[in-house]
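Please decode residue identities from the backbone states below.
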């Protein structure tokens, strides 16, 4: 569509009659109409009778589609609503059959350019080199670089754009494979060893071409002085990459097993590959790995699902929350774990864990309170207004889909008439018509599936209303009406987000944003209910060693506000260190409580006895107001 109005004005339209919408600038003509913001809005205006002419600089700006199903739908829509298409060289009126043919030819020409120049020449040439073992773009695995020398000693280089070993990184690759084997194939133990290294792969030297450097490090994370692997998944991918034994895989097909110099010996690589891959090098199933994965799932996944996992998030943007399943006393439990997001570092262990079932129960109970509280007619009306807005948008989308379905059916009828008329005697034209009809059939099926998915939105609105009316009436029959298997559905229907913030080692806040705007936002204070052994930081250890022999207990807890006095003594006793302290009688914070926890306990009148009684997640109070407590971000580990 035009970027300015000058052409439309030159055609005789006045300023107020022209609608300029350039949101689709830069969007390919291969994208579906429904996925282009401006185009989709234009179609809505057409079906509402607001547009009778579409001005475009060239037909190929509208469509670059092989089978003509999108352009066919567009012409059918314009035909139905009496819309013309205006270009600098022609005005298309789809009530005239030869205008349809001309428009189709222009669209075909746009596709032919792509098919001949891009798909017909560039891509086949790329595939030819790819299957011959040459790099054709994309990531280069660490340990290799690209031989970018076109000529060697005045002659054409036969290895131009092949992988060659880059020894500074190849040495690290060998170390990773050896370490994995030494640790009996334990991925997490290998990660722990990698984590000890500030830099895993050193920076490339200055002789390496910058474009090669970019191709190599895009799959790794840059750190000061080099690169590192960012996750256990990254390590697994490295350990099963057959490139390290000289294999060349192009488009998931092994085309050469001796394409370039290997970095890892076959025995060492095979050990790692057979531990981690569900197929062996010869392509046969790896029964051992398949069975191990089955046992892992059975052993490590809790029976009670973490139902908030799709909507829970940390308040701190430097953290992420993932569900972690741990085995505790012969029972596998799900936890919401807080993990630091640190550029250039492997994912650390959880800084904090919250029992998922405990937090889920608190949020569900709050949901139940909202559902059963008596609402005024106005509040219920406000709820329906919000839901109506959602349904209206879904209804408009449904109208768009139904319009496209009708256009597609009309297109199929037109093609079918061509095929059955007997006028298409040329075999190539007949085949093209058949192909177009097949594509239109697939498009019709896709639209009908999309129609079903959109209809679901309206059904969800009805479901919300039904639940809300029902729960206002059942009162104490909650357990009889809502079964555990219904809980994930309720979370999906009624909760927009659950935000959690750790404010001290044993307390956190939970903020629930409901989809029902009349419920507002709830914020509550909770006790964590799990024993968390926080890893000591170097700074904390230095403070403890310097002040523990002489400082008062109160002073120590002020210096180390997230450590109880009991934890301080435990640090030394666990290491067999005996340190004499002056004998003094001191009042104040209990031995088993840290200062950060104590401040909250005092604010909400929580006693040490209460803490000892609570062995699970405990709601302290909704609509809480917490005095500001800065929780150190230096915590890097938490174990049960």
């Amino acid at each position: 569509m035009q970027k300015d109005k000058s052409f439309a004005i030159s055609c005789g339209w006045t300023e107020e009659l022209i609608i300029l919408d350039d949101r689709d600038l830069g969007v390919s003509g291969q994208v579906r109409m429904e996925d282009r913001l401006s185009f989709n809005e234009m179609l809505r205006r057409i079906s509402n009778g607001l547009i009778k002419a579409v001005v475009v600089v060239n037909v190929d700006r509208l469509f670059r589609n092989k089978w003509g199903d999108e352009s066919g739908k567009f012409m059918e829509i314009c035909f139905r609503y009496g819309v013309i298409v205006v270009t600098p060289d022609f005005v298309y009126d789809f009530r005239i059959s030869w205008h349809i043919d001309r428009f189709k030819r222009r669209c075909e020409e746009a596709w032919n350019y792509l098919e001949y120049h891009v798909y017909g020449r560039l891509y086949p040439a790329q595939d030819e080199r790819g299957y011959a073992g040459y790099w054709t773009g994309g990531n280069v695995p660490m340990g290799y670089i690209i031989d970018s020398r076109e000529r060697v000693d005045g002659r054409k280089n036969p290895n131009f754009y092949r992988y060659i070993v880059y020894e500074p990184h190849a040495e690290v690759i060998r170390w990773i494979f050896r370490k994995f084997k030494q640790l009996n194939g334990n991925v997490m133990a290998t990660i722990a060893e990698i984590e000890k290294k500030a830099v895993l792969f050193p920076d490339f030297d200055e002789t390496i071409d910058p474009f090669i450097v970019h191709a190599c490090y895009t799959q790794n994370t840059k750190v000061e002085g080099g690169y590192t692997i960012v996750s256990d998944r990254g390590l697994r991918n490295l350990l099963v990459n057959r490139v390290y034994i000289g294999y060349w895989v192009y488009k998931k097909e092994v085309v050469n097993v001796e394409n370039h110099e290997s970095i890892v010996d076959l025995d060492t690589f095979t050990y790692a590959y057979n531990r981690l891959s569900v197929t062996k090098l010869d392509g046969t199933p790896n029964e051992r790995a398949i069975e191990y994965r089955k046992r892992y799932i059975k052993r490590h996944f809790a029976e009670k699902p973490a139902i908030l996992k799709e909507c829970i998030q940390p308040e701190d943007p430097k953290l992420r929350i993932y569900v972690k399943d741990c085995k505790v006393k012969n029972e596998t439990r799900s936890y919401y774990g807080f993990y630091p997001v640190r550029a250039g570092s492997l994912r650390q262990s959880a800084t904090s864990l919250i029992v998922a079932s405990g937090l889920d129960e608190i949020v569900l109970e709050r949901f139940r309170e909202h559902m059963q509280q008596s609402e005024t007619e106005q509040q219920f009306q406000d709820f329906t207004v919000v839901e109506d807005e959602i349904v209206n948008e879904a209804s408009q989308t449904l109208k768009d889909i139904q319009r496209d379905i009708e256009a597609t059916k009309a297109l199929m009828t037109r093609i079918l008439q061509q095929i059955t008329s007997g006028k298409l005697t040329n075999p190539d034209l007949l085949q093209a018509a058949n192909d177009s009809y097949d594509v239109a059939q697939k498009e019709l099926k896709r639209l009908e599936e999309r129609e079903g998915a959109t209809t679901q939105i309206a059904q969800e609105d009805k479901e919300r209303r039904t639940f809300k009316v029902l729960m206002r009436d059942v009162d104490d029959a909650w357990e009889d009406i809502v079964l555990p298997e219904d809980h994930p559905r309720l979370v999906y229907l009624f909760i927009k987000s659950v935000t959690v913030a750790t404010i001290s080692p044993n307390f956190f806040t939970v903020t629930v944003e409901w989809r029902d705007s009349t419920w507002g936002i709830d914020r509550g204070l909770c006790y964590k209910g799990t024993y968390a052994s926080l890893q000591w930081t170097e700074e904390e250890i230095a403070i403890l060693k310097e002040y523990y022999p002489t400082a008062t207990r109160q002073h120590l807890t002020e210096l180390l506000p997230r450590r109880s006095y009991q934890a301080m003594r435990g640090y030394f006793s666990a290491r067999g260190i005996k340190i004499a302290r002056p004998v003094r009688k001191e009042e104040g914070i209990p031995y088993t409580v840290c200062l950060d926890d104590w401040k909250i306990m005092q604010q909400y009148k929580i006693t040490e006895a209460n803490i000892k009684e609570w062995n699970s997640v405990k709601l302290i109070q909704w609509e809480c107001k917490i005095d500001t407590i800065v929780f150190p971000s230096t915590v890097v580990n938490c174990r049960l």
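Observation: The chain has 20 helices and 22 strands.
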